[in-house]
Amino acid sequence: MINLVTLAITQEQIDSIIELHISNEVFYSLIVMICLIIFSIIVGLLFKKAMKDPLKTPKGLTFIMFTFVNSLENFVVSIMGEKGRKLTGYFLGLTMYLFLSFAFGLTGLSSPFTYIVMPLSISSATFLLIHLTAARENKWGYFKRYIDPIPILLPINLLTMWAPLLSLTLRLFGNALSGYCIMALVYAALEALSADIFRPIFGLVGASGIQGSDIILAPFITPILHVYFDLFSSFIQTLVFSMLTMIFIAQEQNEEEDNILENVQLEVSK
């Protein structure tokens, strides 16, 4: 007879089985996406209300989003041509997610992109879109690229195929992680400096031993660094990643390939 006692599963074992191990960065990414969903719903309602009187000039958030979407669409078309116009929605979501994820450091927490799985996932979406575009444009000729100019180069061509994915992933991860590490070092240095200067004056605060004097200098210096590492860097990384995505996809399109480099140079010169 089977001993039912040995087959019994305790509540602790059940909890350990169903427990979800989610990293902090993934949780932060979920927060960013929830904020984007709520924001999108609000903007959608505002646009729906504005469309009731299309002759009336939009104001406030409606005007800002209208201008942003229109500018983004023109930017996409200037690099990718008319074929890229239908991808404006994708780049709208991409740019907003990238910017908010990098700017998440303003909360004092780490950016979602400091966990390499997050930049890998969003770069994989771009990588997949690149090859889907290539397969759609070239049909079965898509596979010919891997044996050009001679079939013996197939292994090398298969390796170089992953170069955009690796480049985009490490670009996001490296910039996010470097900014986070620099800010962590600055906070640690300011904490130590504040403690050495002000601790003899203010002493201990509370029975827990928290040094209330250790945070005096940080608010005067770190906001300036946050503006650079969390706002300016967010804008630059969003622009670079989005532009590289547009270029990679546009290179796979059959039409207007000759104008791609010229359009990119024109946008950069502006």
Describe this structure as you would to a colleague:
70% of the residues lie in helices and 0% in strands. It has helices at residues 4-7, 11-18, 24-50, 60-80, 88-103, 117-138, 154-160, 163-202, 218-250, 260-269. With 270 residues, it is mainly alpha-helical. The protein is flat and about 75 Å long.
Secondary structure blueprint with pairings:
Elements lengths: L3 H4 L3 H8 L5 H27 L9 H21 L7 H16 L13 H22 L15 H7 L2 H40 L15 H33 L9 H10 L1
What's this entry about, in short?
This protein has 10 helices and no strands.
Low-confidence segments, given as residue ranges, are 1-9, 204-211
SSE string, helix = H, strand = E?
HHHHHHHHHH
- Our estimate of the beta-strand percent is under 5%
Main structural class = mainly alpha
Task: Give the biggest beta sheet.
Answer: none
Structure characteristics:
270 residues, mainly alpha, 10 helices, disordered N terminus
